[in-house]
Specification:
By secondary structure, the protein is of the alpha+beta class. Helices cover 33% and strands 29% of the residues.
């Protein structure tokens, strides 16, 4: 969160698997109820309805405005950030983003969606909040993570943002994006998770908890039998190979270009990939993109105010 004059800028990264703010990460799931739930951890009350945040599973959809869920998830993210600063009443400017290939077509719709209720009162974790949303800034996912360092980039760079649902690719020359070479593939880490589940079911006739898979993604190991671990690692290694195959189809040449990777998929490349470590930069900060949203929004607001930094 960034304080700017009489308002606060709060970045929200609306991922398909996780919602991220600069200080919080939670599952992009919502369980809605007309009656008060028995278990009330991360419960949001809005419009007379009860929402358990981070519960359930939200299916991939290229259009995020088909229901109210991303709006409710946004309120939860804003509340978490405000709570960190001891605030419950604030004027909020939302900084958000969309996949590179879709941002120009969908940014107005998504901005209008987030502005659907400019003044909102709700309860989150038993604390009352009153926010006034005075504006929304929309940015391209991935590129926001390098927004403040792009000017120092030299030569040809391929930016690869690997999220849960999509893989976004952007070619840059001396830090400047090439608008003719922007691509979005539905090949996020969820595809790897599903492939692992299938492999485990086919080989061992059993279901595996996603938490175990995520543990292997993060640490390259887990407290499971060696043969199961090998199966997971083999599928993850094959997924990383496919990432490089996709990049190659879009003319990525590792000898001529550096690869800059952001998003949760960077862990998979680091732990299961085989490549020249001197020419591939992996940003381990999973919140790098949303931090970029806030810095970029602050830059735009300062410029509009005639007080550019």
């Amino acid at each position: 969160m960034i304080k700017f004059k009489n308002k606060v800028i709060i970045g929200v990264d609306h991922g398909y698997g996780n919602i991220k703010t600069t200080s919080h990460i939670f599952k992009a799931g919502v369980l809605k109820s007309d009656t008060e739930p028995v278990f009330q951890t991360n419960m949001l009350i809005y419009g007379g309805k009860y929402y358990l945040i981070g519960e359930g599973h939200k299916e991939f959809s290229a259009d995020k405005i088909t229901d109210e869920e991303y709006f409710v998830l946004t309120l939860a993210g804003i509340a978490m950030e405000l709570c960190d600063y001891g605030l419950s009443d604030a004027v909020v400017h939302i900084a958000a983003g969309l996949p590179l290939k879709w941002v120009s077509q969908q940014k107005k719709q998504f901005s209008d969606y987030l502005l659907r209720v400019p003044e909102v009162r709700f309860i989150f974790n038993k604390k009352h909040y009153h926010i006034r949303i005075d504006g929304v800034s929309m940015f391209p996912q991935g590129y926001a993570a390098v927004f403040d360092r792009a000017a120092s980039m030299r030569g040809q760079t391929v930016l690869c943002d690997i999220g849960n649902g999509t893989m976004n690719i952007l070619f840059m020359k001396d830090g400047k994006p090439n608008p003719q070479k922007v691509y979005t593939e539905k090949f996020g880490t969820a595809q790897c998770v599903n492939a692992i589940k299938t492999a485990i079911m086919d080989k061992y006739h059993a279901r595996i908890d996603e938490a175990i898979i995520e543990d292997v993604f993060k640490n390259s190991t887990a407290d499971i039998s060696a043969d199961w671990l090998k199966t997971i690692r083999d599928v993850a290694s094959d997924y990383v190979k496919q990432i490089f195959d996709i990049l190659g189809r879009y003319d990525y040449e590792p000898s001529l270009m550096k690869l800059y990777v952001v998003g949760g998929g960077g862990l998979l490349l680091r732990n299961f990939g085989s490549f020249d470590r001197n020419r591939v930069i992996i940003n381990d900060d999973i919140c790098a993109t949303v931090k970029g949203y806030e810095k970029w929004a602050e830059h735009q607001l300062s410029k509009a105010d005639g007080n550019e930094h």
